[in-house]
Amino acid sequence: MANPGETSAQVLLRHAGMRQVPSSRLTVLSCPHFLPPTLCRALIALIDKDRRPSTIADANGDKYFRTSETCDLSADEPAVQDLEARLLALNGIDPAHGEPVQGQRYDVGQEFKNHTDFFEPQGADFHKFCAVAGNRTWTFMIYLNEVEAGGATRFKVIGKTFQPETGKLVCWDNHREDGSLNPATLHHGMKVRKGVKYVITKWYRERHWH
Ligand SMILES: O=C(O)CCC(=O)C(=O)O
Ligand SMILES: [Fe+2]
């Protein structure tokens, strides 16, 4: 492992049910039932309590680019501590490299258009978001519920779409093996057509978050 803020497919594949998408373009894996339904329900309740409109870095003039709601989850909550312990057991990443866990909520018609999770080094907001902790390394995203229609996550460069399922984890390396930022991680949280979608996002950084 090159950096304590990173993990690897090899480490993640030790977890039962973990599968890697066959692709030479990016490292992305998924695992059904990573979280039990009881924990998913507890996290949904926390998201519903505290949600606010989602934001993006490097505003691009499209006010419909990310229409969901976001919630910063308190590290004092037992459900969040349970989640963090499971992530650490899975990925072995030093928790000091983790951003606080976030929840995202999408109502009918809401989406997060094609984007990458890393910050553009040339972007106006790079310094603001990355001066201390550096860029994002890995993304861990967990669906907390079943969506009646829509709400999939599409990686168009590799033609791979993940469907929301309660407790399913999707995780990927935002860098290539040579350490460069990987534009093939481009992904789209697609519009919810029916129902409500809840996800957890956990991002790790090159350096300590604080
Ligand atoms: O909701 C999704 O399917 C994707 C969420 C996402 O890409 C993000 O929050 O960065
Ligand atoms: Fe994303």
The total count of helices amounts to 4
Total domain count: 1
State mean pLDDT (0 to 100 scale). 96
Give the oligomer, counting copies of the same chain as homo and different chains as hetero: single chain
Secondary structure category: alpha+beta
Fold-level CATH name: Jelly Rolls
How large is the share of residues in beta strands? 25-35%
Radius of gyration: 16 Å
In CATH, what is the class? Answer: Mainly Beta
> What ligands can be seen in this structure?
2-oxoglutaric acid, fe (ii) ion
Largest beta sheet: what is the strand line-up? 1-2-11-7-14-5-4-3
Question: How widely separated are the two ends?
Answer: 22 Å
Bin the helical content: 10-25%
Extended strand count = 14
Q: Strand count, sense and closure of the main sheet?
A: 8 strands, antiparallel
Which spans have pLDDT < 50 for at least 5 consecutive residues?
none
Global shape: globular
According to CATH, the homologous superfamily is: q2cbj1_9rhob like domain
Series of secondary-structure elements, N-terminal to C-terminal: HEEHEEHEEHEEEEEEEE
CATH architecture: Sandwich
Q: What's the topology here?
A:
Blueprint: H1 9-12, E1 19-20, E2 28-31, H2 37-50, E3 52-53, E4 69-72, H3 78-91, E5 102-106, E6 112-115, H4 126-130, E7 136-143, E8 149-150, E9 153-155, E10 160-162, E11 169-173, E12 187-189, E13 192-194, E14 197-205
Describe the structure.
Its cofactor is L-ascorbate. It holds the Pfam family 2OG-FeII_Oxy_3. It comes from Aurantiacibacter arachoides. GO terms for molecular function: iron ion binding; L-ascorbic acid binding; procollagen-proline 4-dioxygenase activity. The chain is of the alpha+beta class and 210 residues long. It has a single domain (9-205), classed as Jelly Rolls, CATH 2.60.120.620. Helix content is 18%, strand content 27%. The protein has helices at 9-12, 37-50, 78-91, 126-130, and strands at 19-20, 28-31, 52-53, 69-72, 102-106, 112-115, 136-143, 149-150, 153-155, 160-162, 169-173, 187-189, 192-194, 197-205. A hairpin with a 7-residue loop joins β1 (19-20) and β2 (28-31). The mean pLDDT is 96. The structure holds 2-oxoglutaric acid and fe (ii) ion (FE2).
